[in-house]
Amino acid sequence: MIEVADGVLVATSRVMSTTSTVLFRDGEALLIDPAWMPDELDALADELDARRLRVIGGFATHAHHDHLLWHPRFGDAPRWASAATAALARDEREALSGALGGDFASELVELMGRVEATDAAIPRASVPRGFAPELVVHDGHAPGHTAVWLPEQRVLIAGDMLSDLELPLPFEPDNLPSYAAALDLIAPYVAHADVVIPGHGSPGTDATRRLDADRRYLDDVIAGRVPTDPRLANAGMPEAYERLAALVAGAADP
Ligand SMILES: [Zn+2]
């Protein structure tokens, strides 16, 4: 794990560079999107043990299977998410469980997505001292997707946005206006962020550059221009671009 700011640890999965974020102080920890493979969750529990950290809460940025995970060794502290995320985690439980695949023991499948709704803030009892996380709830990438802003640390935990690896991925059926609105909503936090932590990719000090790149990419797609974004070279991204471009073309062609 790397400490990207005081009390903010990030681990990166071997699958899709998925990040897990740990906020810690005084022996207590809040886990944000712990992920992904069972052995990686176990290793995260080892790491918490080694640092003598007790988990007092969890938070899921959105209702995709790779962001709703948990491990018995993290304990039974309450886990939180936006109201829309919590509703999706409940209503789409079957599909989300199916997406986990066969590597997950039934106890991990059972623990997936057991989040409670809070749009206002993560309850204090689930937050280590020294942190005052603000929830920025929007509908970019997924309904009720939530960025977590740490004002004191000037860290923005972006969920599946502002990635250095992945292009913007509006949710099915590709709600571009929601995505653009979400970028506008997080822009003031981006402007003040010393560190941005994406759900997939590398933490960086270049939040503003990432926001600009995402806006440029979407502007290009909407205008029918072929984007020059270097992330197009990454796995799965040509397909994501083709799909979005086709949808935009279809929408413009009544
Ligand atoms: Zn996602």
CATH topology: Metallo-beta-lactamase, Chain A
Distinct ligands, ions and cofactors found in the model: zinc ion
The CATH superfamily label reads: Ribonuclease Z/Hydroxyacylglutathione hydrolase-like
**Global morphology:** globular
The largest sheet has its strands arranged as 1-2-3-4-5-6-7
Distance between the termini: 50 Å
Total domain modules? 1
N-to-C SSE string, H for helix and E for strand: EEEEHEEHHHEEEEHEHH
Overall pLDDT confidence: 96
Which percent bin holds the helix content? 25-40%
Number of E-state strands: 11
Number of helices: 7
Going by helix content, strand content and strand pairing, the class is alpha/beta
Architecture overview:
The structure is a single chain. Helix content is 34%, strand content 20%. By secondary structure, it is of the alpha/beta class. Strands 1-2-3-4-5-6-7 form a seven-stranded mixed β-sheet, with helices on one face. A four-stranded mixed β-sheet has the order 8-9-10-11, with helices on one face. The longest helix has 17 residues, at 176-192. The mean pLDDT is 96. The structure holds zinc ion. Residues 62, 64, 141-142, 160 line the site of zinc ion. Residues 62, 64, 141-142, 160 line the site of zinc ion (ZN).
Can you give keywords for this protein?
alpha/beta; 4-stranded mixed β-sheet
Question: Which helices and strands, and how do they pair?
Answer:
Blueprint: E1 2-5, E2 8-12, E3 19-25, E4 28-32, H1 38-50, E5 54-59, E6 79-81, H2 83-91, H3 93-100, H4 106-111, E7 116-117, E8 134-138, E9 145-150, E10 155-159, H5 176-192, E11 195-198, H6 207-223, H7 237-252
Parallel strand pairs: 4-5, 5-6, 6-7, 10-11
Antiparallel strand pairs: 1-2, 2-3, 3-4, 8-9, 9-10
Helix pairs in contact: 5-6
The site of zinc ion has 5 residues, from loops.
